[in-house]
Specification:
2 copies of one chain form a homodimer.
Chain A: E1 4-11, E2 14-22, E3 29-36, E4 43-48, H1 57-61, H2 64-68, E5 73-78, H3 117-131, E6 137-143, H4 145-156, E7 161-167, H5 177-187, H6 199-204, E8 213-218, H7 224-228, H8 230-240, E9 244-249, H9 256-275
Parallel strand pairs in A: 4-5, 4-6, 6-7, 7-8, 8-9
Antiparallel strand pairs in A: 1-2, 2-3, 3-5
Chain lengths: ~280, ~280
């Protein structure tokens, strides 16, 4: 796997970098950003972004460099979908296709050959971390659609991800408009196949992590009631005995201002798990 | 002066907000962002942005909220020019007109009625701070073109600004391509009139502050040699006895990754002056 380094910015003695590479999974060029602190770095956190985002949003806005500087842990922020394929419907809406990969392996015509973001993260990004960055342990977190991605990957592969956290995740996509549209578009009409990509359904099916998940959710988030359905995660986790620390944050919305406010807690949470 | 609140994001217990208002100085609508920490706030720092920026860049990318949270000091980030006038040449290049006001009072035809960013900051923004935000003391800082603005306003009005700092400032605009183009476009061919907006020329003319300026300059900044001319400030300050702490930062470029790395030092510098 050849990585092409596009740009380097020295930041807090470490390096913020932008890469692209030809993906064996998506059969397209894929992009990601990283922040690698100065000194010995043995662990990584994968950040999965939300709808409309690419590899830039988190690394420019969240302030992660200040927090990770001086630690042994890097962050990697992949783009949220393949780009530039011109598949039918790929560029017609903000919540499907480009910028909206939903971290699934598509099975529908056209999409199935490229929109395989589950495998892209699980296999290719994790493999890049191990081979290129010499990383030993990996944790995962994300926001909104990316919070959904982090929870799904973390629940399905506890042996790969040492800890899992999310900001404003879509916890029950089979039951909300964003999720239904995306899962139908990528997986087709057979709703049973959607359940592999739904955190609440994974809990129902018996998936369980021994550690506790961390979730922050703003109470002024405009998407809370219709799309995110955080209460469903709360009740499913209780019913199936999954530890989860859901923190409802008064006054906070769905933005990166919310993320930057609580990012310190999430990174501390992952550092403890990775170095524990 | 009626301010129209466009958006509020709770951030670190304080509020990141976006405003617009009809300006008496530019005779256009003007925009700015603010971060006001929770609790009693009596002081403000004005941030002036660089070429192509608007009121969003700093407040989304620099991580100032984390640093200002818990202090008695807010920040205000004005847009870098009037917008939407369709003056001749206003939208033809990134370094003149829209997004490139250069913090001068224009005297050339068309521009003289609107491009009065010096007065806009000095009179209207300072007045908004005092009347709307009930601020007692004000400091100023900026980046690149905005670093130039901060130095010029700070040198000319030490009685208004308690402290002055800059990232990668254009210190001698009468001698660099960006400055020459802008000063000629806004002030005309009479180069003597340009000197009021040139930090090095202000020092030559006898302007002096009793306090020390703080300047950070990346050594990997692509604009250092041709546009920023930091060495000229160094020699002029020495010759005319102006205290200035110029810190050359190895490996750092012209980006917001550079700014976020050293912003803590700049804010501490201003907090000391404002609360001293």
């Amino acid at each position: 796997m050849e990585l092409r380094l596009k740009k380097t910015h020295v930041t807090f003695k470490g390096k913020t970098q932008f890469f692209e590479h030809d993906s064996n999974v998506t059969k397209t060029m894929m992009s990601f950003s990283t922040y690698v602190p100065d000194g010995e770095v043995t662990n990584a956190i994968i950040w999965l972004s939300g709808l409309t985002c690419n590899e830039e949003n988190f690394i420019t806005k969240a302030g992660s460099q200040r927090i990770l500087s001086g630690t042994n842990t890097m962050i990697i922020c992949p783009d949220t979908s393949p780009r530039g394929l011109s598949l039918p419907g790929e560029n017609d809406s903000y919540d499907f296709g480009s910028g909206a990969g939903f971290y699934v392996n598509a099975t529908t015509e056209g999409y199935k050959d490229h929109y395989r973001m589950y495998d892209y993260i699980m296999d290719e990004v994790v493999s890049i971390l191990k081979s290129h960055f010499r990383i030993q342990k990996v944790s995962i977190m994300g926001h909104s659609m990316g919070g959904h991605g982090a929870l799904v990957l973390g629940m399905r592969k506890p042996e790969v991800f040492h800890s899992v956290s999310a900001f404003s995740p879509i916890v029950n996509p089979t039951q909300c408009p964003w999720g239904k549209k995306a899962l139908k578009g990528y997986l087709g009409d057979e709703e049973d196949t959607w359940k592999d990509y739904d955190t609440c359904e994974l809990l129902k099916s018996g998936k369980k992590r021994q550690d506790t998940l961390l979730v922050d959710q703003g109470l002024a988030d405009e998407f809370l009631e219709e799309q995110l359905l955080t209460k469903n995660l709360e009740s499913m986790a209780l019913e199936y005995g999954q530890g989860v620390n859901i923190r409802y944050q008064e006054g906070h919305d769905h933005s990166y201002y919310f993320i930057q406010t609580f990012l310190n807690d999430h990174i501390d949470f992952h550092l403890s798990a990775l170095n524990g």
